[in-house]
Amino acid sequence: MNGAELSPWIALPAAALLVLGGLLGLLGALGLLRLSDFYARIHAPTLANTLGAGCVLIASILVSSAIAERPVVHEVLITLCVILSSPVTAMLLMRAAVYRDR
């Protein structure tokens, strides 16, 4: 099975997840540009980009599993790393900013 033979039951949800992931990434970037101070700016990329990356990875899991005709779950490790590292990084940046502001 190649990309041309992908079932619409897999292709449509994957396409929707990719579009949603792209929109969430764009929303995170716009929030980073538009918000006024550091504490407000840190939330937009952390939340929106984490969700956007999660949508892209779920779409990749769907398509890879359909092409391989078996469950492909090694991308779950990538998802866990992204979901865990982004909020932790934001928390450490906020703590450093609070410490610096004192």
Automatic annotation (TrEMBL):
Coiled coil: none annotated. Keywords: Membrane, Transmembrane, Transmembrane helix. It holds the Pfam family PhaG_MnhG_YufB. The keyword Ion transport does not apply. InterPro entries: PhaG_MnhG_YufB. GO terms for molecular function: sodium:proton antiporter activity. The keyword Transferase does not apply. NCBIfam families: CPA3_mnhG_phaG. This is Multisubunit potassium/proton antiporter PhaG subunit. It comes from Azoarcus indigens.
